[in-house]
Amino acid sequence: MSDLGFTPDEVMTIAAARALKNDDVCFVGIGAPSAACNVARLTHAPDITLIYESGTIGTAPDVLPLSIGDGELCDTAVTTVSVPEMFRYWLQGGRVTIGFLGAAQLDKFGNINTTVIGDYETPKTRLPGGGGAPEIASSSGEIYITMKQTKRGMVDKIDFFTSFGHGTGGKDRENLGIKTKGPTLLITDLAIWKPDSETKEFTVVSMHPGVTREQVQETCGWPVKFADQVEVTPAPDETELKTLRDLQARTKAAHEGTGRGKNKFGSQRDG
Fold first, then answer.
1. Among residues 10, 53, 72, 135, which one is catalytic?
2. Which of 31, 54, 120, 218 has a 20 to 30 A CA-CA distance from 68?
3. Where is the composition biased (Basic and acidic residues) (predicted)?
């Protein structure tokens, strides 16, 4: 907790939530994207439609899901459709306005790696993989990305192209026949970034309260570009903080005791 009364992660999540509109149809990633989307739903965007990869539509979970297969998603959804219908009719049919993704590695053009660290054949680390993220990145109206800033995560060159952002910049998406906007917003625990209108390189447009340019550069693996006018991200208000913290507290309470060797009621499994 900072002297300001909130953490960098809380600023990141709430700034990401604010970017969502009441009429958005949002394809939600697990983790920080899910937290941001549900804070938006519980505050200024009660009518937002949240879609998860498992086929749940109009999802309104009381706690954050552990995975796309979490029963909480289906239990609270308006409806659940098959995965093929989700991708073919909803996503590729142009019905999703925002795809909200995280990243293990990200470059300055919004290309995402969630596959491997190092060489593909002999990786240092094998990551969870793309899942539906490549399709989300190409078919959603636009893409929001949220992640913590580190030089290990924000790199000059990603090790593997899992989800296509703006390629090498400029008109790469257009030249490949991709008609959607691609990444239009990056929210980290230090700053808010938007792509340059011509080059598509992410540029810092706002820094969170108390953050310096030096901090932003020290935690980024490429030379950072700053907008001519860099704003200060508005601090989270009391309602936003309470909503996020209550959501996280409910989630922690719901998932405690469901670790390895225990069932969902918290008792040890037999055998």
1. 53
2. 120
3. 248-259
